[in-house]
Amino acid sequence: MHPDQIKQLILAGMSCEHLSLDGDGQHFEAIVVSDEFVGKNRVQRQQRVYQTLKDKLATGELHALSFKTLTPEEWSVQHG
C-alpha cells in the first residue's frame, strides 16, 4: 500500500489534528494526533486507529504499521 492510501483511510475514519506517515511500502510508522484520544489509554487509542484500517488489515494488504497516538495537548507539549 502507498502511504497516502493509509493516510486517507485514517482520515476518513476519524478526526485528526495531525497525521504523518512514513513507510517503505511494507512497514509504516505513523503519528496520529486526535482529540478522540483524550481520556483513553494507549491500548484504546491503538484500537481506535486500527478500527479505521480493519479491512486492509483483514485482507493482509496492510500488515506492518506502528504508530504513536497523542492528544492535541500532548502534541503541543512535545512540539511547542
Q: What features would you describe in this structure?
A:
This protein is of the alpha+beta class. It has a single domain, classed as BolA-like (GMP Synthetase, Chain A, domain 3). Helix content is 46%, strand content 25%. The chain contains three helices and three strands. The protein has a three-stranded mixed sheet. The longest helix has 18 residues. The chain starts with a helix and ends with a helix. The mean pLDDT is 93.
Keywords:
80 residues, GMP Synthetase, Chain A, domain 3, 3 helices, 3 strands, 25% strand
Detail the topology: elements first, then pairings:
Elements: H1 3-13, E1 18-23, E2 27-33, H2 42-59, E3 64-70, H3 72-79
Parallel strand pairs: 2-3
Antiparallel strand pairs: 1-2
Helix pairs in contact: 1-2
Assembly type of the chains comes to single chain
Major sheet details = 3 strands, mixed
Under CATH, the topology is which? GMP Synthetase, Chain A, domain 3
* Count of DSSP strands: 3
Task: Summarize, please.
With about 80 residues, the protein is an alpha+beta fold. The protein contains 3 helices and 3 strands, in the order αββαβα.
